[in-house]
């Protein structure tokens, strides 16, 4: 049976066509089946690839066994989307960065072909990341359940007043909170929104979550790190316009009395990284540590 590739890409990137031209032939020449969403067709043809070799599937192979590889061509947002749609099914993810930051899509676009060849020779290193499962409850009704790689954020709208929330960690009352919102992030998500809110940078393999308030009413309310084994609960007590945002991409309206329940997900995501990848070297590169 041919090996299968799920291709997820930022279709508006000006680098997509050239990257497809560089990275895909090495797989197509080996008989791989390539599965992608409809938006890929134009870039695929522009890259000069055989249109018959691209299988369009809105569900990205969800009805079949897990694919052998998910190739992400884009930025971290594209990879987060792929993690939820494909990575949760156990398919390893190889990210090629077509943007500028790229914490998760760590392979540069200039080395796209080399990264795919490294996968084929088995020289890439699996980097397994913990994930966060989020549930939104209204009374006794489960409104949504989603597993995310980065974070879950309860926050107010642009013109709404400050929110009243109650936080519980591991069944213990962590007290009432007045703030513009609250971020619960995985170690992977600690370099995203939580970092902007003053949270710590966490090593990716840590089994812990960071809880970071957004613009708290009390200045002594600071970000904290808790074991991933402890469930977290956020109950909205009073707010005019509040939303639960998952990985910065999926949003839900939250009403007073609603409860957001968070816990470590059973599923994990596997990213394929370069051998000897130095996390602190990556931080220096992406965050410009040491620059003057």
How are the SSEs ordered, and which strands pair?
Blueprint: E1 4-9, H1 16-23, H2 25-28, E2 33-36, H3 41-46, E3 54-56, E4 69-74, H4 76-85, E5 93-97, E6 107-108, H5 112-120, E7 125-138, E8 141-148, E9 151-156, E10 163-169, E11 172-179, E12 181-185, H6 193-196, E13 208-214, E14 224-227, E15 232-238, E16 242-246, E17 250-254, E18 259-273, H7 279-287
Parallel strand pairs: 1-2, 1-4, 2-3, 4-5, 5-6
Antiparallel strand pairs: 7-8, 7-18, 9-12, 9-16, 10-11, 10-15, 12-13, 13-14, 15-18, 16-17
Care to describe what's here?
The protein has 292 residues and is of the alpha/beta class. The protein has helices at residues 16-23, 25-28, 41-46, 76-85, 112-120, 193-196, 279-287, and strands at residues 4-9, 33-36, 54-56, 69-74, 93-97, 107-108, 125-138, 141-148, 151-156, 163-169, 172-179, 181-185, 208-214, 224-227, 232-238, 242-246, 250-254, 259-273. The radius of gyration is 20 Å and the shape is globular. Strand 4, helix 4 and strand 5 (93-97) form a beta-alpha-beta unit. It has a 6-stranded parallel beta sheet with strand order 3-2-1-4-5-6, sandwiched between helices. A 6-stranded antiparallel beta sheet has the order 8-7-18-15-10-11. Strands 14-13-12-9-16-17 form a 6-stranded antiparallel beta sheet, with no helix packed on it. The protein folds into 2 domains: 4-124 and 274-287, Rossmann fold (3-Layer(aba) Sandwich); 131-266, Probable inorganic polyphosphate/atp-NAD kinase, domain 2 (Tumour Suppressor Smad4, Sandwich), CATH 2.60.200. It contains 7 helices and 18 strands.
């Amino acid at each position: 049976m041919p090996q299968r590739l799920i291709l997820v890409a930022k279709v508006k990137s000006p680098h997509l066509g050239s990257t497809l031209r560089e990275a895909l032939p090495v797989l197509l020449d080996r008989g791989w089946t390539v599965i992608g969403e409809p938006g890929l067709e134009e870039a695929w043809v522009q890259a000069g690839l055989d249109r018959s070799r691209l299988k369009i599937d809105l569900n990205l192979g969800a009805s079949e066994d897990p694919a052998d590889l998910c190739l992400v061509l884009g930025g971290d947002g594209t990879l987060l989307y792929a993690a939820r749609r494909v990575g949760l099914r156990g398919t390893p993810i190889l990210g090629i960065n077509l943007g500028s930051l790229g914490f998760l899509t760590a392979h540069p676009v200039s080395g796209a072909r080399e990264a795919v060849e490294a996968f084929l020779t088995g020289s890439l290193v699996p980097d397994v990341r913990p994930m966060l499962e989020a549930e939104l409850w209204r009374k006794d009704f489960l409104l949504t359940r989603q597993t995310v790689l980065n974070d879950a954020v309860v926050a107010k709208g642009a013109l709404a007043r400050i929110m009243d929330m109650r936080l519980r960690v591991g069944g213990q009352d962590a007290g009432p909170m007045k703030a513009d919102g609250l971020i619960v992030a995985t170690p992977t998500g600690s370099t995203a929104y939580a970092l902007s809110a003053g949270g710590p940078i966490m090593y990716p393999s840590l089994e812990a979550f960071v809880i970071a308030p957004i613009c708290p009413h009390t200045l002594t309310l600071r970000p904290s790190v808790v074991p991933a084994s402890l469930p977290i609960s956020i109950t909205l007590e009073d707010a005019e316009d509040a939303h639960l945002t998952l990985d910065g991409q999926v949003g839900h309206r939250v009403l007073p009395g609603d409860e957001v329940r968070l816990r470590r997900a059973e599923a994990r995501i596997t990213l394929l990284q370069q051998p000897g990848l130095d996390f602190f070297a990556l931080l220096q590169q992406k965050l410009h540590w040491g620059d003057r």
